[in-house]
Amino acid sequence: MTDTVITPRGKVLTKTERPRLHKVILVNDDYTPRAFVVTVLKAEFRMTEEQASRVMMTAHQRGVCVVAVFTRDVAEAKATRATDMARKEGYPLLFTTEPEE
Ligand code: TYC
Fold it and tell me: What is the span of the domain harbouring residue 29?
């Protein structure tokens, strides 16, 4: 995003803002096996077994867990790919995205 500002003296200034980051969120459900959630997290988000297990257990206990943050396009692509991996196996596992404040 680029903003153009004209100063009182007529000078043109441009401000480049960093793009907003988007969170990928893992949503709990009652059907997807824990081990499968861990496999998807490792494959799509390059997590270790320990990191993936912690994120999976947080979603399992609290309902949701932030997996990571990316630019919007990357967050959406990763959430879609991870959700599709589960659909192919017939599981309802869901990854969503939302902008960071
Ligand atoms: N709740 C699932 C079970 O008990 C495991 C699970 C954890 C599923 C996290 C989704 O985002 C999830 N088999």
Answer: 19-99
